[in-house]
Specification:
heterodimer, A: mainly alpha, globular, B: mainly alpha, about 80% helix, elongated
C-alpha cells in the first residue's frame, strides 16, 4: 500500500542512483582518457575516450534535469529539494572540470614533457581518489550506509595532498628551461586539474552540512 | 431548515478558515495535494463532530436558556461577528464569538450559568498555554525518536509526509469534536435539534466550508505558519491537535488558531528562535475581550431590532 502511495518517490530514488552511477562512469572514462593520453599521446583512441567522457557528462546533465523536474513536481519536502538541487549543481561542476581538462589537452594539442608525467599521473590519481570518496559520501548520504563526517576529513586530507602536488608540479615547470608560453600553458592545465579535487572538497563539505541540517 | 442557516454559515466559515490550522502546513509547502487534504479534513471533521462533539454541545447549551428566536439570533450574531472582524482584519475566534453571542442572549434572559462560563474562559486562556507546553514536549519527543532512527533522506521524507497526513487528519478530528458545538449548540439549547442531529449538521457544514472555500486560506495562512521547517510544523500540528482534542473531551470549544500560535511559540522556545511576533500575542489577548464583547453587543442589537414595531403616526 505504502509502495503504491509513494511510487513517484521510488522512481525519484532510482533516478538519483542512476545519476550517481553515471558520475562514476564519467570518472572512469576520464581516467581511461588520461591514461591513454599519458601512454600514447593524442590520437584516435584518446579522442574516442574524450568523446565518451563528454557523452557521459551530457547524460549526467540530462539525468540532473529529469531529477530536478521530478523533484519540483511534489517529490520530497521543500527543504530537501533545495539541498538536493544545490548538491547536484555542485557535483556537476566536478564533471565539467573533467571535461575541461580533456578539452584543454585536445584543443590546445598539449604535449606533456616526460619529466612531469609521473607527478601528473600521481596528481590525477589522488584527485580521482578524492572524487571516489566524494561519490561514496554522496551515496552514503542517500543510503545512510556509513559515517559522512569521517569521509569529510579523509577527502580533506586528499585535497591537501593535491594542493601540495599542484604546487610541486608548477614549481618544477618553472624550474625547467621551457619557454614562457609552454610554462603558462602547463600551469593552466595543472590549475584546471587542481580544480577537480577543490570542487570535490566543496561537495564533501556541502554534503556534511546538508546532513547536519537534517538532524533535529 | 432556514432557521439553521446562521449556524450553517458559521460552520462553513469555520471550515474555510480553520482547516488551514491542520493541513495548511502540508498543503502550502506542497507536500500534500489540496484535494487530498480537503477530503481527509472534511471526513475527519465529520467523524470528530459525530463521535466527540456531544460534550461541547452540552456545555454551550447549558450556558443559558434559549428560545427558538434567541438561538437564531445567537448564531447570526456570532456569524456576523466573525465576518465583520475578519473583514476589518481584527483577531477573531469562532468559539469566542459564539460564547459572546450566548452571553448576549443570557443578559437578555437575565440568566447565565457563571460556573460554565468560568470553565469556558479558563479554557480559552489555557489553549495557547496548552499549545506551548505540548509544543515543547512533542517536539522533544519527536526529535529524540527521529534522531534515533537513522533514516536516509527518502525514508525520512516519506515518514514526515505520512506523519503530517496522520497529524492533520487527527487535527481535523479534534477540530470537528471541539468546534461543532460553536455551530449548532444554540439550536440544541432551543430544542430545535437533538445533540446527534446538531453534530451531524455542524460537521457537514464545517466539512462543506473545507471543501468549497479553504484552498486559498490553506495556501496563504499555511505559509504564514510554515516559517518553521517541516519537522517543527509536524510538532506544531500534533501539539495543536492534542490541545484541541483535550478541550473537546473537557467539553469546551476553543480556538484552533490560538492553539497553533501556542504550539509555534513552544517549538520556538526549544529551537531558541523568536517564532511569534509580540503583536500576535497581543492579538490573542485582545481577541479574548473584543470578540465576545462584539458578539454580545450584536446579539443584543439584533434582538432589539427584531422587537422594534412600526407604529403609524
Amino acid at each position: 500500500m505504502i509502495k503504491f502511495l509513494f511510487k513517484k518517490e521510488r522512481q525519484f530514488q532510482e533516478l538519483i542512483f542512476k545519476y550517481l552511477d553515471n558520475l562514476k562512469k564519467t570518472q572512469e572514462h576520464f581516467e581511461k582518457a588520461m591514461d591513454c593520453y599519458f601512454d600514447f599521446g593524442l590520437g584516435e583512441n584518446c579522442d574516442f575516450l574524450i568523446a565518451q567522457t563528454h557523452k557521459f557528462e551530457s547524460r549526467a546533465d540530462d539525468l540532473r534535469n529529469d531529477i530536478i523536474e521530478m523533484m519540483y513536481s511534489k517529490v520530497l519536502i521543500p527543504e530537501s529539494r533545495g539541498d538536493i538541487f544545490r548538491l547536484l549543481e555542485s557535483l556537476d561542476l566536478i564533471l565539467n572540470h573533467f571535461e575541461a581538462v580533456l578539452f584543454m589537452i585536445q584543443g590546445q594539442k598539449i604535449k606533456i614533457p616526460k619529466f612531469i608525467v609521473p607527478d601528473l599521473r600521481e596528481f590525477i590519481r589522488v584527485s580521482l581518489e578524492c572524487c571516489d570518496l566524494v561519490f561514496r559520501q554522496v551515496e552514503a548520504y542517500f543510503k545512510k550506509t556509513e559515517d559522512i563526517k569521517a569521509l569529510v576529513s579523509t577527502i580533506d586530507s586528499h585535497e591537501s595532498r593535491c594542493d601540495h602536488l599542484e604546487r610541486e608540479i608548477v614549481s618544477k615547470i618553472f624550474d625547467s628551461d621551457m619557454g614562457p608560453f609552454p610554462k603558462m600553458q602547463f600551469k593552466e592545465l595543472v590549475g584546471q586539474i587542481g580544480e577537480i579535487s577543490d570542487q570535490a572538497d566543496r561537495v564533501s563539505r556541502s554534503v556534511y552540512i546538508i546532513n547536519i541540517k537534517r538532524r533535529v | 431548515m432556514t432557521s439553521l442557516l446562521g449556524g450553517v454559515f458559521l460552520g462553513w466559515s469555520l471550515g474555510a478558515n480553520d482547516a488551514a490550522n491542520v493541513f495548511g502546513t502540508a498543503v502550502s509547502s506542497r507536500m500534500i495535494k489540496f484535494w487530498t487534504a480537503a477530503i481527509l479534513a472534511s471526513c475527519f471533521v465529520l467523524a470528530g463532530a459525530l463521535l466527540g462533539g456531544q460534550s461541547g454541545i452540552e456545555t454551550l447549551k447549558g450556558l443559558t436558556r434559549f428560545t427558538y428566536d434567541q438561538a437564531i439570533i445567537a448564531s447570526i450574531a456570532a456569524a456576523c461577528t466573525v465576518t465583520i472582524m475578519t473583514l476589518f482584519g481584527l483577531p477573531v475566534s469562532t468559539s469566542q464569538a459564539v460564547v459572546g453571542a450566548i452571553l448576549g442572549v443570557g443578559i437578555l434572559n437575565r440568566q447565565l450559568n457563571f460556573a460554565g462560563l468560568g470553565k469556558v474562559v479558563v479554557c480559552w486562556v489555557g489553549t495557547p498555554v496548552g499549545g506551548i507546553v505540548l509544543g515543547i514536549i512533542i517536539y522533544k519527543l519527536l526529535a529524540a525518536v527521529a534522531n534515533s532512527m537513522n533514516l536516509n533522506i527518502f525514508q525520512s521524507d516519506i515518514l514526515l509526509r505520512l506523519c503530517l497526513i496522520i497529524a492533520g487528519s487527527y487535527g481535523a478530528y479534534a477540530l470537528g469534536a471541539n468546534n461543532v458545538a460553536n455551530v449548532t449548540a444554540v439550536f440544541v439549547g432551543a430544542g430545535m435539534l437533538s445533540t446527534s442531529a446538531a453534530a451531524l449538521v455542524g460537521g457537514l457544514s464545517i466539512g462543506l466550508g473545507i471543501l468549497t472555500f479553504s484552498k486559498k486560506v490553506m495556501e496563504t495562512v499555511g505559509q504564514k505558519l510554515v516559517r518553521l521547517d517541516p519537522f517543527s510544523a509536524l510538532a506544531v500540528v500534533l501539539a495543536q491537535a492534542i490541545t484541541v482534542h483535550i478541550y473537546a473531551l473537557v467539553g469546551v470549544p476553543v480556538s484552533t488558531s490560538q492553539a497553533v500560535i501556542g504550539a509555534v511559540l513552544g517549538v520556538g522556545i526549544i529551537k531558541g528562535v523568536n517564532t511569534i511576533q509580540r503583536r500576535t500575542l497581543v492579538h490573542i489577548v485582545l481577541a479574548w475581550f473584543i470578540t465576545p464583547l462584539v458578539a454580545s453587543v450584536l446579539a443584543l442589537s439584533i434582538d432589539f431590532a427584531t422587537h422594534l414595531r412600526y407604529i403609524p403616526g
